[in-house]
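Please go through the protein record below and explain what the tokens say about the fold. Record follows.
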Amino acid sequence: MSDASLQPLTIVEIQARVADELARIGSVIDELGARFAAAGEELALVGGPVRDAMIGRLQNDLDFTTSARPDVTERLLAGWADAVWDMGRDFGTIGCRKGPWQVEITTYRSETYDPASRKPDVDFGDSLEGDLGRRDFSVNAMAVRVPGREFVDPFGGIVDLAERVLRTPGAPEDSFSDDPLRMMRAARFAAQLGFSVAPEVVEAMTAMAGRIEIISAERVRDELVKLVCAPHPRLGLTLLVETGLAAHVLPELPALALERDEHHRHKDVYEHTLTVLEQTIDLEHRLGGGRDAAPDFISRFAALMHDVGKPRTRRFEAGGVVTFHHHDAVGAKLTRKRMQALRFSNHDIEAVSRLVELHLRFHGYGSGEWTDSAVRRYVRDAGDQLERLHILTRADCTTRNQRKADRLRRTYDALEERIARLSEEEELAAIRPDLDGNRIMEVLGIGPGREVGQAYAFLLELRMDEGPQTPEQAEAALRAWWAGRQDQEPPTR
């Protein structure tokens, strides 16, 4: 990538950025540091805020570590913070808000995993250096003591940050044994920061990939979401696949590397998928917010999963042709199953699965042969995911044939124009039959029951096929349908 955010930094650049950031946050960190020092406690700005200051990512979330136990921290914050809350007393963390600043303060600690446990055992530590030594990566194991603003970097994090590389403070095997989720974090930080991962870390991740199985689905899901929503998700996803971690947390992704796409335009469907993901990111501005729009997980994950049905549906036909018939429907089922296993919300599961199921629908449009009825059904089936479906369908074009790509783009432009026209004329987003349930019962002289639902479905199909009807037209059609239905029913004995 040529992204400037991926370029190495110099120590001078880093020092200048830190000086600027400390000046920006100086009032709050010095006040807080003085408060803890007066009580005989140590306090240090630590981890992400220090790292992000060095790479120019400004934020108002400040993480501190301290010698103080949680009860002492809570007492020292009282009267200084605007609000104080217990974020996780058992883990030593107390949170607060001071003006625009969100603050988390955690007691020095060390935590390890029992090999058969999903939860860490937490013990409080007694030194800043010991606390830094238990952190995941050296770039997150730097601190600034306050109020004196002494920089503490026992593991060479500033050098690793300058070189944009992820290393563990100690042996990676020990770090990942203590908390296997750190292997996922390596991929996530690679995606978020654009960093490479040290060879010894990659080697340990590969050897220990199976250890991720002891981590709860919810924690794995949260890391995966952060990775997919990062600026450079391809970096993190590639690392997951190459180390074997993806085989445990998202096995549908590495399975794609075994499949050639039917037109042989890409090395494999896996590479095509990563390209579709990146093109989806380029189109996220369509969802609102312009070029600075927030990452949209649903669009990105749908792009990642849209072809996962291909391995199950691959067929070899005469002449060496490879087909993947119905991979959209199969992929939607696989997507639903995987997202359920990762404990995603029902809303997210329904949204992503629907997009996967519909991602091929446009290819039946040809050069505009769809009737207005087909366009209405496209809008109805997409529902509130229509704009995301537009994005996925456009992103799914990865052909290197520029003439074909331009033709597909123009065709989809035309479809969107038809949708806009019909929407303006017919309020497609709120399509309903032209008669409601009460009027159906009045016209047919029936009470509530299954027949009302069947009549409603008939009128909805009529609306889809022929567009809006006047009440008189809808009633006449309903009576004709009802009469034909009565004629078809066998006589009672």
About this structure: The two ends are 78 Å apart (CA to CA). The chain has four domains: 4-163, 170-250, 251-430, 437-488.
